[in-house]
Specification:
The chain is α+β, with helices and mostly antiparallel strands. Helices cover 25% and strands 32% of the residues. It folds into two domains: 3-224, P-loop containing nucleotide triphosphate hydrolases (Rossmann fold); 232-346, OB fold (Dihydrolipoamide Acetyltransferase, E2P), CATH 2.40.50. Strand 14 (280-289) and strand 15 (294-300) form a beta hairpin. Helix 2 (91-101) crosses helix 3 (106-119), helix 2 runs parallel beside helix 4 (135-147) and helix 3 crosses helix 4 (135-147).
């Protein structure tokens, strides 16, 4: 492992910011530290950077314990949420700053800055000041400045939070491509699950100072191991009256039953439904166009659940009675989570 945290603990007075943190990151991977506000993700990032010191445990980078090594000596590039650019410096000078501090050769500085201007699509902007740039351009300058000294590790603290939605989407794709091209090990903090799923090779999910689950985006989304993970991902709806939904063998004593929109199929009363013996009836209470889908809220005997319907399908109206098929549920019990399948869907369909 290129980056390792072993038995890390960090307290601020009586507040446990990090509790028994253990994980490893392979070289060249792009990893998301994901979690809600106050979950401890930024504290972990700052300890890796050397901006905070753990109360106990070891932080290793490339096999070396770095607890007592100053931040400036760890070979780390850091991109801040608010860019932290020097307002009085041009784009060129901002990117060159770290190299000048290192007293690099002038010719090398020129070569490296020109290389990064090309990499970050900032050619032609080198003489501008930060106030003359868009938010996306300023963030690209921040990336270039962090990369200029050839860091072994790149850390990014909510790098897209201050950027509007369209530019944020573009920068996500750009960042993933850039990291793959450079091969630099990178860790970024985010509270946005869609961002983490789209960009990262691995997600480390944090909650209340602890790690809830580690895995690829697909592994964590499809197979949540804890109640928190199950509730954090997706737009899960809690079922208050689960007996409404047919053909589920629901065990006694479960804490919660959650259904995500992708677990649900909503059809009009006159549409064919091959799993008719598992269908429940519901009433549309909301129907909102979201571009790629119609987002629905359906009341099924007191359970209000989120669902989706293709925009090209025949429209459903608020107040309309519809058929609702739930394929599977997320079950949580004693802080553990697992998938529960609709028995009809698992059975073979016999056509006569």
């Amino acid at each position: 492992m290129y980056v390792e945290l072993k038995d890390i603990n960090k307290n601020y007075g009586n507040f446990e910011a990090s509790k028994d943190i253990n994980f490893g990151i392979e070289k060249g991977k792009l990893v998301a530290l994901l979690g809600p506000s106050g979950s401890g993700k930024t504290t972990i990032l700052r300890m890796i950077a050397g901006l905070e010191t753990p109360d106990s445990g070891e932080i290793l980078i490339d096999g070396e314990v770095v607890n007592d090594i100053p931040a400036s000596k760890r070979g780390i590039g850091f991109v801040f949420q608010n860019y932290a650019l020097f307002r009085y410096m041009t784009v060129w000078d901002n990117i060159a700053f770290g190299l000048k501090v290192q007293k690099a050769d002038k010719e090398y500085i020129k070569q490296r800055v020109d290389e990064l201007l090309t990499l970050t699509n900032l050619k032609g902007f080198e003489d501008r000041y930060p106030t003359q740039l868009s938010g996306g351009q300023r963030q690209r300058v921040a990336f270039a400045r962090a990369l200029a000294p050839n860091p072994h590790l790149l850390l990014l603290d909510e790098p897209f939070a201050a950027i509007d939605a369209k530019v944020r989407q573009e920068l996500r794709s750009w960042l993933k491509e850039m990291i793959e091209q450079l091969g630099v090990t990178s860790i970024f903090v985010t509270h946005d699950q869609d961002e983490a799923i789209e960009v990262s090779d691995q997600i480390i999910l944090t909650n209340k100072g602890r790690i809830e689950q580690i895995g690829t985006p697909l592994e964590i989304y499809q197979n949540p191991e804890t109640a928190f993970t199950a509730g954090f991902f997706g737009k899960g709806s809690k079922l208050d009256y689960p007996q409404t939904f047919r053909r589920f063998d629901i065990p006694e004593g479960v804490d919660d039953l959650l259904v995500r929109p992708e677990f649900v199929e909503v059809t009009k009363k006159d549409e064919f439904q091959k799993y008719s013996n598992s269908v429940s009836e519901g009433t549309i209470v909301e129907a909102e166009f979201r571009g790629d889908w119609i987002e629905l809220k359906v009341d099924v005997d007191g359970n209000v659940i989120n669902a989706r319907r293709a925009p090209e399908a025949e429209p459903v109206e608020v107040g309309e009675r519809v058929n609702v098929l739930v394929y599977k549920l997320l079950v949580t019990e004693n802080d553990k989570a697992r998938i529960l399948y609709n028995e009809s869907v698992r059975e073979p369909v016999v056509v006569i």
